[in-house]
């Protein structure tokens, strides 16, 4: 089973992933936690290029291709083998991020993103996705608090430096995706306290696991 977590900057994905993986392991599920960009040795190098705050000249198409390259490596080296061996894969961001960031926010046309997606996904799609939704003003505030508190390297902040309009478009992109695929994408209010968000997600997840047997 493939579970993904999505949301804008500072939506609390990483905290929730730690909760979910803990819950799944406690209940006897084998679970692999991973992330994009990154997740593999090569992917972590691509991640550094993508998040480097000094790379503000990065061309939008080059950016899309780097995310796609990262995903190609991740799917073939880690995700596909883990799913084939029956593990639950829990991934911090996946293809929906590309649609929201490179598509809705950067303005690359959907047909290009879909064509590239087809090349690397090879039929892999999340079974369930949690979208932690909150206003970008609140998300960015949290993200910068984390950076300033040393929880994250300041040099890796290219996206946090984007204009508010960019983040608004990302959010809108996510919400339209959720509207198009309500069965897969569950919107969760990410502005609520983490413990409440956790309970909401776990309740949805329990129902989902029950239906899946
Ligand atoms: P991440 O480390 O998850 O950021 P955070 O957890 O701080 O929100 O992701 C890094 C950045 O990469 C994030 O700003 C979103 C961006 N991104 C894309 O633009 N496209 C993609 O396909 C992916 C996977 C991420």
H/E order of the elements? EHEHHEHHEHHEH
Q: Record the strand order, biggest sheet.
A: 2-3-1-4-5
Helix content: 55-70%
What is the structural class?
alpha/beta
Categorize the overall geometry. Answer: globular
Major sheet characteristics: 5 strands, parallel
What does this structure look like?
The chain is α/β, with parallel strands linked by helices and 213 residues long. The protein has a single domain, classed as 3-Layer(aba) Sandwich (Rossmann fold). The chain has eight helices and five strands, in the order βαβααβααβααβα. Strands 2-3-1-4-5 form a five-stranded parallel β-sheet, with helices on both faces. The model has no long low-confidence stretch (mean pLDDT 96). Bound molecules: thymidine-5'-diphosphate. The site of thymidine-5'-diphosphate (TYD) has 15 residues, from helix 1 and helix 4.
Give a short overview:
The chain is an alpha/beta fold and 213 residues long.
Write the layout of secondary structure elements.
Layout: E1 2-7, H1 13-26, E2 31-35, H2 41-51, H3 60-84, E3 88-92, H4 95-105, H5 110-121, E4 128-133, H6 136-148, H7 164-180, E5 185-189, H8 194-212
Helix pairs in contact: 1-8, 2-3, 3-5, 4-7
The structure holds thymidine-5'-diphosphate.
Thymidine-5'-diphosphate (TYD) binds at residues 9, 13-14, 36-37, 51, 67, 92-93, 97-98, 101-102, 143, 159.
